[in-house]
Amino acid sequence: LLFAWALWRGGNSWHLSLLQSVSFAVALIPEGLPAITAIALALGTQRMAHRGVIVRRLPAVEALGATSVICTDKTGTLTQNRMTVRAIYVAGQRLEDEQTSSPALRDLMIAAVLCNDAQWVRDAKTGEEIIQGDPTEAALLRVARQSDPALAELAAAHVRIAEVPFDSDRKRMTVLHRAADQSLRLHVKGSVESVLPLCTRYRAVDGERPLTSADRQAISREMEQTSASALRVLALAHKATPDERIDEAELTFLGLIGMRDPPREGVTEAIESCHQAGVAVVMITGDHPGTATAIAREIGLLRSGDEVLTGAELTNLGDAELRARFERVRVFARTTADQKLRIVGAFQQQGHVVAMTGDGVNDAPALREAHVGVAMGRDGTEVARQAADVILTDDNFTTIVAGIREGRAIYHNIQKFIVYLLSSNVALALAVFGMTFRADALPLTALMILWINLVTNGLPALALGIEPPDPAQMRATPRRAAEGLFQRIDYLGITLAGFIMGVLALALYMVPLWTGTANPQWSRTMAFAVLGFAPLFHVWNCRSRDRSLFKQRPILHWPLVGATLLSAGIHGAALAIPGLRPIFHTQSLSGLDWLLVLGLSLSVLPAVELAKLLGRPLLR
């Protein structure tokens, strides 16, 4: 259209009209944008990796910054996964922090050792005995050795014939062993709700007897009390069996073991940061609701008005009922892998951007379904890591929050340097378009425009892309998933700054300020200088869309200072070195010319600062 307009208007040759049109097209396109975006994302993900957040897929960076719900496991993520036995209930008695010798307690400890995949091994470096295996099972081995050191060698004297491993649906583990005397015995370990219904007998002080309803009530009360103390409760049972077949019916209940898994250091502060940032934290665990509730209250996850929902209740809720309660539920207890997938989907249907943590094979579908799948890098399975978008090297919830902070910073930084680049492009396009209305004007060459886009603007834009996270970003609510890259204020800022810089350049064409005679070569050189230097001042406006430069913390971002000075030096060299003038089609400038260039270029900084001051009340 511009080429047709130039030909119709006349006054220029067709090749000059074509040159103006090509220059206009070059001015409209921010050529450095793809490269700077890729570099900013790469540097941002490198910074996240230093914090323990390994990004496997780049789009996850944007999604992590927009996360509004974190669905997190409890054990190992919110807690330290360092189990310590704190309570034992055996033969109708509760033992806390001390073990007394009795046949009933010995039977319980034998079950704890045999229904166990952890083992004592000798460390190759130190020579000390350590436990290799799951922290829960390691705690059982430790308490068994404290009760009777001889039990440490018990597993070696028994041959495991068959087993049914623990899974989140059964919520129990079953093993069958043959002893040295060739007798066969079945041992079961799991949640009370899973093990107790299989029991018909009870290990009392004086031996085994039938399990009564009063016994069941006493066991349930003990489980509730222990769980309310933030202890994870396991039930153990056994029975003698005549053949090598796993039959879990008619077991003998042996007792309960309560274990303490303390919260991770800093997790309470991290959850409070999430609350301030408008990010909901939801615990999804297979533990008893009492245990989950106690831990959630201790770390500040469960507050007044929040609800706890069990897997059984979730199964009985229809989709409409679930959506009505979802915004209040902060703890899901006794859940299965399928229910995790349903929980993630329900939050997504409500318009949330969901980050989901997981470590097991069964977690893989939920990790893939979530906007950001977060796998545990230390204790997680390879299947979970392959399904995830992000991997935590330390399995720590606080690292997820750090990742959200970095994700928000990266996204805001990309917004800032795109606003900066587009402001410069608006100025260039306005200047090139305005020159077509003057027949004797020498248009900016395509080389001049590419120089400004790629060389002069590139380094400051990159410096904007690596600015550290602004603390204010974690006090704002997450952006909506459907929200565009820019808001109205961004478009206004791009237009205003671009208009100011473009008009300054056009003024040098249209008004011979002191000579009284037109000099097209001088005008083009001056416009080229202003369009290169003005963005170097405007870049400081782009650090915030509404806050003053003097309220930024830190006020001076040293990489940006260095990038601005280096770009100014490069652009100044292109104008000042005589050997480059034929290449850029410029002429020499006097000292007064340089003062004029710097004065006009600097004026964009206070102009935009004034616009922020006047427009700030309208944003509140």
Protein model, in words:
- With 620 residues, this protein is an alpha/beta fold.
- Helix 2 packs antiparallel against helix 16, helix 4 crosses helix 16 and helix 18 packs antiparallel against helix 21.
- The relative contact order is 0.12.
- The protein contains 24 helices and 19 strands.
| Biggest β-sheet description | 9 strands, mixed
Tally the helices: 24
Strand coverage percent: 15-25%
Q: Give the overall silhouette.
A: elongated
Query: What separation lies between the terminal Cα atoms?
Result: 42 Å
The averaged pLDDT comes out at 89
Question: Low-confidence parts lasting 5 or more residues at pLDDT below 50?
Answer: none
Helix content: 40-55%
Count all strands and give the number.
19
| Secondary structure category | alpha/beta
Rg over CA atoms, rounded to whole Å, is 35 Å
Layout: helices, strands, pairs:
Elements: H1 2-9, H2 14-28, H3 33-50, E1 53-55, H4 59-65, E2 69-72, E3 84-90, E4 93-96, H5 103-114, E5 119-122, E6 129-132, H6 135-147, E7 159-164, E8 172-178, E9 184-190, H7 192-195, E10 199-204, E11 207-210, H8 213-228, E12 231-240, E13 251-260, H9 267-276, E14 280-284, H10 289-298, E15 307-310, H11 311-316, H12 319-326, E16 329-333, H13 337-349, E17 354-358, H14 364-369, E18 372-376, H15 382-387, E19 390-392, H16 397-435, H17 446-456, H18 458-465, H19 488-510, H20 520-538, H21 558-576, H22 581-584, H23 591-602, H24 604-619
Parallel strand pairs: 2-14, 2-17, 10-13, 14-16, 15-16, 17-18, 18-19
Antiparallel strand pairs: 1-19, 3-4, 3-13, 5-6, 7-8, 8-9, 9-12, 10-11, 12-13
